[in-house]
Amino acid sequence: MSDMDQATVMPEEGAVSSGDAATSSGSRVRIVRLPTQVANLEVIVPYALIAEINEVMLPEGETHLSRLDAAMVDWRAQRIPLVSLEAMLNEPLPTIGQRVRCAVIYGTNPDIALPYYAILLSGVPRSEEVTADSFEEEVQVDGEIWGITALLGGRRIAIPDVRTLELRIDEMRLRFEQESMAPAQ
């Protein structure tokens, strides 16, 4: 099994790891840099979490995302929640149109009905291989959705706490479903 196939989420800590790749300094793991406009950070995730990079159409009239709401978009004949990390962190939301680029992520929590979700991107993602030795030091960053923050090649990076992120997105999805089922007043 390759390092890419070993990427998992550690439920006890919620931190993303790559099996032995996170502890064995010589092992390599493939990551994807997700281009967002989160201030002073580059967001990375294990390659194995990415289902697809795609463009989706926002529902008519929904050209904004908020901290507490997800837009439900169509992807491969399914409705999945699309979120903005910037909005979730109370940062300014990038200007978006009806068609947006996103990273569709595999859901990892079997306890919630969230097989996929999408994260708004502001550019084209890149994948690369890194080793545990590539991370220079852990740094402190505000934001409850980060599992790990560190320096990688002199740049500040953040790896989302996938379980926390999924729980927040699932709450948004459930709120959306309840609001759409509520009778109009």
TrEMBL record:
Residues 50-165 form the CheW-like domain. InterPro entries: CheW-like_dom_sf, CheW-lke_dom. Transmembrane segments: none annotated. GO terms for biological process: chemotaxis; signal transduction. SUPFAM superfamilies: CheW-like. Residues 1-22 are annotated as: Disordered. Coiled coil: none annotated. This is CheW-like domain-containing protein. It comes from Halothiobacillus diazotrophicus.
